Amino acid sequence: MSIRKHQVVDLLKSIQTGDTAPLSYINPNKYIQHNHRAADGLAGFGALIASLPAGSAKVFTPRVFEDGEFVFSHTEYDFFGPKIGFDIFRFEDGSIVEHWDNLQERPTGANPSGHTMTDGPAVATDLNKTLANKILVEAFVEDVLVNGRMQRLGDYIAGDNYVQHNPYIGDGLSGLGKALEAMAREGITLKYDTIHRILGEGSFVLSVSEGEFGGKHVSFYDLFRVVENRIVEHWDTIEEIPAFGAEWKNGNGKF
């Protein structure tokens, strides 16, 4: 594991342990925060942690990846309740200078196919295919999720070999189809509007998007595993984006 990956894992774990040493990985003069609950800078990070009930936080990071100046992680939290989160950290001159995240409440139990939101493979393979896999995932999100060309699903996804970790959807194209039909019956909208970022390391690619779910303005973080030019596995979180107001502790926006 690279030094930057270790630093991110240690920093996240410090939320649980209270260890202050990993705070040294953050640039004390420049830390731009995109979590609306925290203000910029080390002081903002510290204030958020201090607001937690003593001894309540739990942190476990099963996946961490690196793409240029970015490190992105997939973490199980108990942080004001059980959650699953993706975190993105940007490094500059050896220090962390910016942070984005996306958190979703963690349901109890498994999804219709018996998977949790974080189980499955955790180590990137095919490191020489990072760029090709990022291009494939961006094309899938743009083609199918943004433009709604559902008939193209089979061009990107590995049929019923597709493993799904969304807590409400089963494996395979059949599981996805059933979920979409159920949402349509209930009048639940699912719409991706804008792709903000595509990050990857080998077989793992994270897309960061904005759109609407159930009539709410949300951010979609989708982690895909790609094998032989097909998407074979998917993890995600969806978080509502509050309107700018008193709830925002910074003015940097979600993306």
Query: Could you say what the CATH architecture of the largest domain is?
Result: Roll
User: Helix- and strand-based class?
Assistant: alpha+beta
Oligomeric organization of the protein chains? single chain
The largest sheet is: 5 strands, mixed
Binned strand content: 35-45%
Query: Mean pLDDT, nearest integer?
Result: 94
Low-confidence stretches: none
Order of helices and strands: HEHEEEEHHEHEEEE
Cα radius of gyration in angstroms:
18 Å
Distance between the termini: 27 Å
The number of helical elements comes to 5
The shape is globular
CATH topology annotation of the largest domain: Nuclear Transport Factor 2, Chain: A
| Fraction of helical residues | 10-25%
* Overall number of structural domains: 2
Q: How many extended strands?
A: 10
Which sequence of strands runs across the widest sheet?
1-5-4-3-2
Main CATH class of the largest domain: Alpha Beta
InterPro entries: NTF2-like_dom_sf
Organism: Acidipila rosea
Protein name: Putative SnoaL-like aldol condensation-catalyzing enzyme
Write up this protein.
This is Putative SnoaL-like aldol condensation-catalyzing enzyme. The chain is of the alpha+beta class. It contains 5 helices and 10 strands; from the N terminus they run αβαββββααβαββββ. It starts with a helix and ends in a 15-residue tail after the last strand. The mean pLDDT is 94.
Layout of helices and strands:
Elements: H1 3-17, E1 32-33, H2 41-50, E2 58-67, E3 70-78, E4 82-92, E5 95-105, H3 130-146, H4 153-156, E6 163-164, H5 172-185, E7 190-201, E8 204-213, E9 216-227, E10 230-240
Parallel strand pairs: 1-5, 6-10
Antiparallel strand pairs: 2-3, 3-4, 4-5, 7-8, 8-9, 9-10
Protein name: Putative SnoaL-like aldol condensation-catalyzing enzyme
InterPro entries: NTF2-like_dom_sf
